[in-house]
Design a protein that fits this description.
- The complex is a heterodimer of chains A (about 475) and B (about 450).
- Chain A has 15 helices and twelve strands.
- With about 475 residues, chain A is α/β, with parallel strands linked by helices.
- In chain A, the strands form two sheets. A ten-stranded mixed beta sheet of chain A has the order 3-4-5-2-1-6-11-8-12-7, with helices on both faces. A two-stranded antiparallel ribbon of chain A has the order 9-10.
- By secondary structure, chain B is an all-alpha fold.
- Among the domains of chain B are: about 140 residues, no CATH class; about 110 residues, Leucine-rich Repeat Variant.
- The chains are: A alpha/beta (about 475), B mainly alpha (about 450).
- Chains A and B meet through helix 1, helix 2, strand 3, strand 4 and helix 6 of A and helix 1, helix 6, helix 8, helix 10 and helix 12 of B.
């Protein structure tokens, strides 16, 4: 067989593989969508009867420690803490961990909240970098600031866990705002099944384009720039028809670091957050699954679709690239670390379904897609490209992508309706179409690069340039 | 193959268009519905307010501006429910209207007699609720809700139970009691909430039994309902105690504690010797909330309990009871091997006034480093440390000397975070100099064996 013949054979094998791959992947997406629709409708129906007021009034509700790791977050930290101090919840404390910031994060906190150094005593259950000092305020007794030597986000969260006083802790990113009722809503599964619940995550929405005042989102809007709008649709799809589905299948692997509630004793039992991981949130959840499945314990890690955390999305491709590179490297690190769980029936649906999905589709997917764009011209050059079939395949795959995104917009409109205007809906539907032409492909390239960075053991966190929250325009302008 | 793919494309494109159409229609319909509902509310609200605020025996039907269609009836029921929930209070639009009418009646009835104005307002509120209940009966709403209790859809049963609670219809009590055995937790909870609103012994007994529900959330909700019922709940809880399972007893103790009823004192004291540590801890907590001076001895004994949660709760309770008799026992508890007990004992001493403060100052010389550190933390939290810092600027030499000695003692313990912060930020020049000098003299700070901040855990 000559070189052209070999190439032809390779391309044909690849095409066949891609067809199977594509069919299987879309079948999984469809399954997740169906389970998500069921889960969200069930949630909405139950929410109608859920008296959150009772949790709020009750002296019997679980108290919560909210932990905010902050590294060079001077721009948003005061608003974030204000929003956290204003949440509706009967008993909670806010612990901000200043993780070796080189800007004036600590100073801004000290000034804004009248903090003073204190000699508060706590247990050092998890090892962390040296804590330089603790700050508290007599006026705001439920606010504590931990100042420590830089050790990364995982290390900062571990320091927060050490200082925390309550049995549940909630991790919140410093560039994020949680809604007033978010703690009430995310804690409810813990109230329903106190023996089984281990962790719960809420939905993360994009704050770009919204007006923020005193740490509250006072007007919901869509970003002006295209890139964050595309991320709004991506987040809707990922949370409403992704995580809801995984949660319904009892196979949720990710609870966003931006907003997640955990049972402290279980986190300590697995050794807390791991510093080596680029995505400490994913690694923690995987470790807990592994630990609890091995111990043959009945447990639940769930996604709750309503408690909302608003976060700032990257506004430029460069920053987005850094963020996605880290996310994908973290996924690869965790998959490699827990590779013995993959296809292992001992780990139930996690080992037999969720991990294989992430290993084969999330890891290989970007390669298959990128390679596809390379193979098409080669096949055309070799004269083996069936143009009709190729076009039909392309159109179908694009339509299916649009279908998934529009379904998520529909789910949002029927259930939670956060985006109030007609223009918001129109923009989201248009973005659902547009994201298939360029944005999706760019994300694939980011992941391919992340794969090679993972092989090179690159560990950079990736700097996130932030614009800060947008204040409402003054009346009369 | 090509045909199949083509059909798939057409199908998916059709589905896509369908989804977009559903989005548009759904939003448009919702907006239209909201607008129509708002018009209907405006049409019925004044008539309903007049009916609820009046005192004659005419049926609601004679007050309404037109015969009710199905949708009209839903709006009228919603408005009545809002009014029944608020009474003649100003929390909702209809509540404000009813209140305005009731106010006029009140002024006419009592004139300027303020002594009877408040009780009269309460009577009007109850009257408005009573008239709302009568209106629900006249409109056939009660019978319809009772019918919905048999629905095979759980959310309809739950909704019907909720409506019956709002209607406060006593004849629904038996059906709601039966609904407490429903398979779906949400339905049971709605029934419980409705029974709580209807009240009466027949309603409260099944609520007490519902405390046995294994879900913490259900237990919380039933507990809240029983707390809302008030002291009538105590009449049922105390006799039922012996037949309650352990987790229901925990909830019962919480309810009794929150109601702060002295009638539960003996039960709680007995519970301090229960075999279950959870029960003992809750009982100690309850006695603290009741503030029972007579339990101080029993609580002091609790400080020696084998289970640390009981010791921690006993310490907290002693702080709440506020008897200085407990100061020596709490000072000893500062040396407990468990962090929570030390923290609660320290906090309790801080709340015990001068005697507690003196004990904390005395503990600065304790042989146990953990006790010393807890004492510093509490003195700092209670503002005593700041008081000493302020005394450094006092013209009274004795006072200044005493403050300096106390501060030097704290510096020797290595607890200098707060002092260093104050030395850097305090405005008064003399005090800053004194403090800086004291810190400099002590540097490098002597540290207790292994008892720095990071090691302040359990031993």
């Amino acid at each position: 067989m000559n070189a052209t013949g070999l190439l032809t054979e390779l391309v044909l094998v690849f095409n066949r593989y891609v067809l199977y791959y594509f069919t299987l992947l879309n079948a999984v997406y469809l399954l997740l969508l169906v389970v998500s629709v069921y889960e969200i409708f069930r949630f909405v129906r139950r929410t109608f009867f859920s008296d959150y007021e009772q949790i709020l009034r009750s002296e019997l509700s679980w108290p919560i420690s909210v932990i905010v790791p902050a590294h060079n977050e001077a721009r948003t930290i005061v608003e974030t803490v204000r929003s956290l101090l204003g949440v509706n919840y009967p008993e909670f404390e806010v612990i901000v961990v200043n993780d070796g910031s080189t800007d004036d994060t600590l100073q801004r906190l000290v000034t804004a909240f009248g903090l003073r150094r204190t000699d508060r005593i706590y247990r050092r259950t998890l090892p962390t970098e040296t804590v330089r000092g603790l700050y508290g305020s007599l006026e705001i007794p439920n606010l504590v600031v931990v100042d420590k030597v830089w050790g990364g986000k995982a290390d900062a969260l571990n320091a927060g866990v050490n200082v925390s006083r309550y049995p549940l802790f909630c991790s919140v990113d410093a560039d994020s705002i949680i809604e007033e009722t978010a703690l009430l809503r995310v804690v409810k599964p813990f109230m329903d099944r106190p023996e089984e619940m281990v962790a719960a995550g809420g939905i993360v929405r994009i704050v770009n384009g919204c007006d923020v005042k005193d740490g509250r989102v006072v007007r919901i809007g869509l970003p002006r720039r295209a890139l964050p709008v595309l991320q709004v649709v991506e987040y809707l799809r990922s949370f409403l028809s992704g995580r809801s589905g995984w949660s319904g299948l009892r196979s949720l692997l990710i609870i966003s670091g931006a907003f997640g509630l955990y049972r402290k004793s279980e986190v300590i039992a697995v050794g807390g957050y791991d510093r080596w991981s680029a995505t400490e949130d994913l690694e923690l959840v995987l470790k807990m699954h592994e630990h609890l499945r091995r111990a043959r314990r009945r447990y639940r890690i769930v996604f709750v679709p309503d408690p909302v955390c608003w976060t700032e999305a990257p506004a430029t491709l460069r920053v987005l690239g850094r963020q996605r590179n880290r996310w994908h490297r973290g996924l690869l690190q965790s998959l490699w670390r827990h590779r013995t769980m993959i296809f292992n029936p001992r780990y139930g649906a996690i080992g037999l379904f969720a991990l294989p999905y992430f290993a084969f589709f999330e890891t290989l997917g970007p390669f298959v897609e990128t390679l596809g764009y390379v193979v098409i011209p080669i096949a055309w050059w070799l004269g083996i490209l069936n143009t009709d079939f190729f076009l039909l395949f392309l159109i179908f795959s694009v339509f299916f992508g649009i279908f998934l995104s529009v379904s998520s917009v529909l789910l949002e409109e029927i259930s939670f309706r956060r985006y109030p205007g007609w223009e918001h809906l129109a923009t989201l539907v248009v973005a659902s179409v547009v994201e298939n032409f360029g944005y999706r492909q760019v994300l694939g390239l980011f992941k391919v690069k992340a794969f090679f960075d993972f092989l090179r053991r690159r560990r950079a966190w990736g700097r996130m340039d932030r614009e800060g929250f947008r204040a409402p325009e003054p009346v009369g302008r | 193959m090509r045909t199949i793919v083509l059909q798939l494309i057409v199908g998916t494109a059709g589905l896509l268009l369908f989804l977009i159409a559903v989005i548009i229609v759904n939003k448009a319909m919702r907006e239209v519905r909201e607008s129509v509902e708002s018009r209907r509310r405006a049409a019925f609200e004044p008539a309903l307010a007049v009916y609820l605020g009046s005192a004659d025996s005419r049926s609601i039907l004679s007050y309404l501006p037109r015969r009710l269609g199905r949708r009209d009836r839903r709006i009228v029921e919603t408005l009545l429910a809002e009014a029944a929930a608020a009474g003649a209070q100003r929390e909702t639009a209809i509540g404000r209207r009813v209140a305005a009418i009731a106010d006029r009646r009140l002024v006419a009835a009592v004139g300027g007699n303020n002594a009877i104005a408040a009780p009269a307002a309460a009577v009007v509120r109850d009257e408005a609720r009573g008239r709302a209940t009568a209106a629900f009966e006249a409109l056939g709403s009660v019978d319809r809700a009772l019918g919905d209790l048999d629905s095979h859809r759980w959310w309809r049963r739950a909704e019907a139970a909720e409506r019956l609670g709002v209607m406060r219809c006593p004849r629904a009590a038996d059906r709601l009691v039966r609904l407490m055995g429903d398979d779906v937790g949400e339905v049971r909870m709605r029934a419980a909430a409705a029974l709580g609103l209807i009240r009466g012994a027949t309603s409260i007994r099944p609520l007490v039994a519902a405390l046995s529900d294994p879900s913490r959330w259900s237990a919380i909700r039933v507990a809240e309902i029983l707390v809302g019922v008030g002291h009538e709940a105590v009449d049922e809880l105390l006799p039922a105690w012996d037949n309650l399972p352990r987790h229901a007893r925990l909830s019962a103790l919480d309810i009794l504690a929150r109601l702060r009823t002295p009638r539960a004192r003996d039960l709680m004291r007995r519970c301090l010797s229960d075999p279950s540590a959870d029960i003992r801890a809750r009982a100690a907590h309850g006695l603290g909330l009741i503030g029972d001076i007579g339990s101080v001895d029993a609580l002091q004994e609790g400080l020696g309990d084998g289970a640390w949660p009981v010791r921690a709760m006993a310490a907290k309770a002693l702080g709440r009871v506020g008897s200085p008799v407990a100061v020596p026992a709490l000072a000893r508890a500062l040396e407990d091997r468990e962090w929570w007990v030390r923290a609660n004992a320290g906090e309790a001493l801080r709340h015990l006034g001068d005697a507690g403060r003196e004990a904390l100052v005395g503990m600065l010389d304790a042989s146990d480093p953990y006790a010393r550190h807890q004492a510093v933390a509490q003195l700092e939290e209670g503002g005593v440390l700041d008081g000493w810092i302020a005394d450094l600027g006092s013209p009274d030499e004795a006072r200044r000397g005493s403050a300096l000695r106390a501060i030097e003692k704290i510096i020797a313990l290595g607890r200098t975070d707060h002092l260093a912060h104050q030395a850097a930020s305090i405005a008064e020049e003399g005090v800053r100099r004194f403090l800086t000098e004291a810190l400099r003299r002590a540097a490098p700070a002597e540290s207790d064996e292994g008892a720095d901040r990071d090691a302040g855990g359990s031993r």
